[in-house]
Each structure stands twice: as structure tokens, then as C-alpha cells.
Design goal:
The chain is α/β, with parallel strands linked by helices and 601 residues long. The chain is built from 24 helices and 14 strands.
Length: 601
């Protein structure tokens, strides 16, 4: 079924990892922890996650970006596309330092920031950095041959990154566009004088990155010895306030912001803030920034997920002069000529495949042009198939059978940007998004407030999700309530009305569906997605743990990220038990059985 991958331009990457039907787990590193962690999961904890994977017959781990996020703690909006975040260092596995005199301080930090809890206490980062600085000052880094080699090998990005960190710190954390003119414009004299004055601080940040490389490399060796593949995450877009954009300002269109047009989930579209790439300027320097990022990621990953990969073909862009409140409404595609999209995407993806050993995996969710699907199929680049969105009007239940998913894909029950399976079932399935439906009504001259109690069940509608009343059982009743026929509203109705009942049938379950999710339901959904034709099946850790009913409280809160929302709940989810306890879970045998029955490993 997958042999054609070996005749594609991704041939060498597939030969390297093999054509096996693999199962895996996806998690942010900040969400997991061991009994020995200090406030947050660290690189060394990945060894225990790999041990658990072997117990449940999995051979893949997918991580969210591990790049240095400064103190904003948003993994897709990092200070650097190269540098890893030092908060993920294991203090007890640093190299070329004598930790004896720091044991009590390490233990004190662990007592003040114990692992676990409902949300990450990111206060640990500043405390960890303060202790790392003390350790650094006692190290022999000036005499370390390995450190000297590391600095030389990574000269393309390392010094600029370290400079960026210190200049930002000395300017009270302001974005680089608000720095004094000499620093903003990267005037050589200003930067040279500053670097000489702050040489030790700059060296500290370089030392941290060296420690991260050495420690992560050791962990990767552990995983590869156990035949566990690691999938990293390379955001297509680069944070505006980053060392990369500051160092290569001509590579980016700083008068524009990337985003997404309006859709069923975001009625105003999205405005992310990252500047679009100026591909013509990058090409003049052989795409050095893009290819160097791939080169550095190769130290750690076997596969690399390209977030928003469709951006290689075309990107929704919004002028920075546009009011923030309008979101992504008033944008255009770049390039504007649709006839250019395929050639641009093919060129950039071909370039990446040619210059990396990692298998590229494309996050191709959202509004996707047909040329993207065609190119991914030809290049044998796996895309993403999310069960709740896979529809087939020819199927009695309306859901596309997983055996008909793209073979070059990753089958998913949920993503880090969606509700977990339990939350989807309890709050989203069978509903419409309230703000979107209200806007549609307003655009069509329909009185939303008058229609709302006629169409929707308020007792089953939560979190801006409106559940259809059972009595709205066909299009004729819907049209009478609306006082008109409307194709757009009808399409929304037909895709969501009795969605729970149809999904229950899709899973092959008997009897009447239950409103609340259960261990039985999530296990059936995980088995179904594992049956997919997709070569990979990678599920969120919280969905796997839901088989054991391990999360307490409202399932709506068991979520990694609410896109386009800024709140303290985003990027802070913590799993309900330590990695050591996961090794002994009673449901491990059930997860293993799912993979054995569906021929995954």
C-alpha cells in the first residue's frame, strides 16, 4: 500500500525510517513530567515517555516546538527558530560542570516547584535560569573544546540569537522594532561595543544552547536504541519579535501580518502577527535561513512537522495598518495569482526534501487548495486527516471511513488546537458555533435572537456552541423557522444535526448514544482511527489517557490551546500523573491491543 513512497523524491527519507504502519503519541514537553522533574517536564523525561511507548506498542513521539519562547510561553511564537528553551534542561544532566556544590540549591528549587498540578507554573523558568547562571560561572567553558566547536559550527545563528536575548533584556523586554535606532538597524559599531560590554552574558546564552544540544542528543540516542522515532515541529512562520527576523529583516514583509480567512471556527478569520516571507530575497542567498533551520533540527528529529505547510503555496496576509479588531477579514492571498501557487509550493518543498534527512510531514488543515493535496501525494509527504472533519456524503453516517484516508497521511482524533475527543463529544458534536451562526443571520437579514430559541436547545448549549433541537428534524422545518431557504445555513445544519448519533453509528456501537463521553466511547474512537489507511496514527496523550478516565473535572479544560485566544490556560496543560505511574497503567494492555489488532507498532 505504501511502496510508491519509495519512488518519490522523498525516497531516501522513507528508506531511512521504513514503511511500517506506525502508532504514536503527541504531547508538548511542558505537559509531561517525571517524579524527578523541577516544575516542568525536561528533556531527560522523554526517556520515560519512550519507555511507555514501548509498553503500548508505539514507535513515534510527536512534540510541539521546543524553541526558546522567552517569557511569553507560546511555542509557535518563539524568540528563535533555532534555539531551544533552556527551561527544558535537566539540571542534573549538565556536562563539564561540577554539580556537587549545587545539590542543595537544585533540591530547594525542586521543593519550591514540585512537578504535577493542573497547569504549568512558568515561574520556574526565571528561577532555573538564575541557578544555571551560577553553574555557568563555575564551569570551564573557556577551556571546553566541545563548546568552542559548537560555537563555530553554529555561527550562522548562535551569536545573533545571544545578542538578541541580551539587547532585549537591556531594553526592558521591548520588541526589537522599539529598540534604539543603532540596535534596531543592527549598526556594526553599536553591536560590537555592546557585545564587548556584555561578553559574559552573551557567552552564557551560547553555553545554554550547547548544553541543550548535548543533553538532547543523548536523549535521542536513547530513543533510537529503542527504535522510537521523534517528530519535531517546525513552524512555517517566524515570530516577528525574534532573533531570526531581527537578523534578516530583508527576508520578511514587515508591513504585513500572516493569518487565515474566516471559516466555520473563526468568523472573523485569524491574524497571527508573524510576517510573511519575502521568498525572492531569500532565494538570493540560497534560502540559507530555511535550510539552516532544517540542518539544526536534524540533530534531534527523524521527522519534522511543518506547521501551516500550505503557506509554502500561498499565505493569507493582512496589512499591519488594518485595525487588530478586524482579525483576518480584510486580507488577501500572497501570491495573489492562484496560477503561481503550485509552482511556488513544489519549488520550496523540493528544496527542503533535497537538503534534509528528516521526513517532512505537512500540517495541511484549514482551507487548502487542491494543488497542495496533489503535490503532497506526488512527493509522498504525509498530510493530516482529522476524524471529526473527514466527511463523506456517500456514507450513511456521513463520515469518511478511515480505510479511505490518504495513505500519505497522519490519522488524528484531535490536535493541539482542537478540543480533546471527550470535549468534542460533550460540547461540540451536534452543534454550530454561535458567533458564526449569528453573523450569518445578520448578513442575511435574519433575526438571530428571535430564531435562537426556536432552533437550539439552551440546556445542551455551552461555550458558544449551539445544539440543535431534536424537533428541527428536516430542512423544511428549518426553512419555516428561518422564513426562507438558504444554502449556506442548510449546509451547516446538515453537517451538524444529529452528529452524535451519526458518529455513534460510524463507530459501529449499538444502542442509543450517550450525551457524556466514556472510556468505552473514546476507546472505540481510538481503535477506529487506528484502522486508517494512513501510514501513521498519532494521537494526543490526553486522548490516550482518557481510556483510563484519568482526567477529573470539565473535559472542556483538558485542552492545550484555544486558537486566537490569549489566556493563561493556553499552553499550560499538565497530565494527571507522572511518567513513572504511566508505566503501570491498567489501560496499557488495552492500548497495546488496539495497535496489535490494527497492525500498528
Amino acid at each position: 500500500m505504501y511502496e510508491s513512497f519509495l519512488t518519490s523524491i522523498s525516497q531516501k527519507q522513507w528508506q531511512r525510517i521504513g514503511l511500517a504502519r506506525r502508532a504514536g503519541v503527541a504531547t508538548p514537553l511542558f505537559s509531561i513530567y517525571s517524579e524527578n522533574s523541577i516544575g516542568i517536564g525536561d528533556l531527560w523525561d522523554l526517556r520515560l515517555l519512550a519507555d511507555w511507548c514501548r509498553r503500548v506498542r508505539m514507535s513515534m513521539i510527536q512534540l510541539l516546538p521546543l524553541n526558546d519562547v522567552g517569557f511569553t510561553f507560546r511555542p509557535y511564537d518563539a524568540d528563535s527558530g533555532f534555539a531551544l528553551d533552556p527551561m527544558y534542561l535537566s539540571l542534573e544532566h549538565l556536562i563539564e560542570v561540577d554539580l556537587k556544590s549545587f545539590k542543595s540549591q537544585i533540591n530547594s528549587l525542586r521543593r519550591r516547584f514540585p512537578p504535577g498540578g493542573e497547569r504549568v507554573n512558568y515561574g520556574v523558568k526565571a528561577e532555573k535560569l538564575a541557578l544555571l547562571l551560577k553553574i555557568f560561572k563555575t564551569s570551564t567553558q573557556n577551556k571546553s573544546t566541545a563548546f568552542v566547536k559548537y560555537r563555530k559550527a553554529n555561527d550562522f545563528w548562535l551569536r545573533d540569537y545571544a545578542l538578541f536575548k541580551i539587547v532585549k533584556e537591556k531594553n526592558q523586554g521591548k520588541v526589537w522594532e522599539e529598540w534604539p535606532a543603532g540596535f534596531k538597524a543592527r549598526e556594526a559599531c553599536a553591536l560590537q561595543d555592546f557585545a564587548e560590554e556584555h561578553a559574559e552574558s552573551i557567552r552564557f546564552h551560547e553555553w545554554l544552547q550547547w548544553q541543550l544540544l548535548e543533553q538532547f542528543s543523548e536523549v535521542v540516542r536513547y530513543l533510537r536504541d529503542r527504535k522510537i522515532l521523534l517528530m519535531g515541529d517546525l513552524p512555517f512562520l517566524t515570530s516577528r519579535d525574534s532573533a531570526d527576523v531581527w537578523s534578516h529583516q530583508d527576508y520578511f514583509k514587515l508591513d504585513s501580518s500572516s493569518g487565515a480567512p474566516p471559516d466555520a471556527y473563526f468568523f472573523n478569520g485569524q491574524r497571527w502577527g508573524m510576517p510573511p516571507c519575502r521568498w525572492s530575497k531569500m532565494e538570493e542567498n540560497s534560502y540559507d535561513l530555511l535550510l539552516e533551520r532544517l540542518k539544526y533540527a536534524e540533530h534531534f528529529y527523524d521527522l519534522i512537522r511543518i506547521d501551516h505547510s500550505v503557506g509554502f503555496f500561498r499565505l493569507w496576509t493582512i496589512p499591519t495598518s488594518e485595525p487588530f479588531e478586524t482579525g483576518g477579514l480584510n486580507g488577501t492571498y500572497d501570491p495573489p495569482d492562484e496560477r503561481l501557487w503550485e509552482a511556488q509550493g513544489r519549488k520550496l518543498l523540493s528544496l527542503m526534501i533535497e537538503h534534509t534527512k528528516m521526513l517532512i510531514v505537512a500540517e495541511d488543515l484549514g482551507t487548502i487548495p487542491e494543488c497542495s493535496f496533489r503535490t503532497l501525494a506526488e512527493f509522498a509527504i504525509p498530510g493530516m486527516e482529522v476524524a471529526r472533519w473527514m466527511r463523506d456524503p456517500q456514507a450513511l453516517d456521513g463520515f469518511k471511513p478511515p480505510v479511505k484516508y490518504r495513505v500519505n497521511s497522519v490519522a488524528l482524533l484531535s490536535t493541539h488546537d482542537t478540543a480533546s475527543f471527550n470535549a468534542w463529544w460533550e460540547y461540540e458534536a451536534g452543534t454550530v458555533y454561535g458567533p458564526l451562526f449569528k453573523r450569518l443571520c445578520q448578513e442575511k437579514g435574519v433575526d438571530f435572537e428571535a430564531m435562537k430559541p426556536q432552533l437550539f436547545d439552551s440546556g445542551k448549549s455551552f461555550y458558544n456552541r449551539l445544539r440543535w433541537k431534536e424537533e428541527i428534524s428536516d430542512a423544511a422545518i428549518l426553512n419555516r423557522c428561518l422564513g426562507r431557504q438558504d444554502a449556506e445555513i442548510l449546509e451547516i445544519y446538515e453537517s451538524s444535526y444529529r452528529e452524535k448519533e451519526r458518529y455513534w453509528q460510524y463507530l459501529g456501537l449499538s444502542g442509543t448514544y450517550r450525551e457524556k463521553s466514556s472510556k468505552m466511547l473514546v476507546a472505540a474512537a481510538l481503535k477506529k482511527i487506528s484502522e486508517a489507511a494512513s501510514i501513521f496514527s498519532v494521537q494526543l496523550l490526553q486522548d490516550w489517557l482518557a481510556i483510563g478516565d484519568l482526567f477529573k473535572g470539565d473535559s472542556w479544560n483538558v485542552r492545550i490551546n484555544f486558537p486566537a485566544v490569549m489566556n493563561e490556560s493556553n499552553w499550560s496543560l499538565v497530565m494527571p500523573l507522572a511518567l513513572e505511574a504511566m508505566q503501570k497503567l491498567p489501560v496499557n494492555h488495552q492500548i497495546r491491543a488496539i495497535h496489535r489488532q490494527t497492525n500498528r507498532r
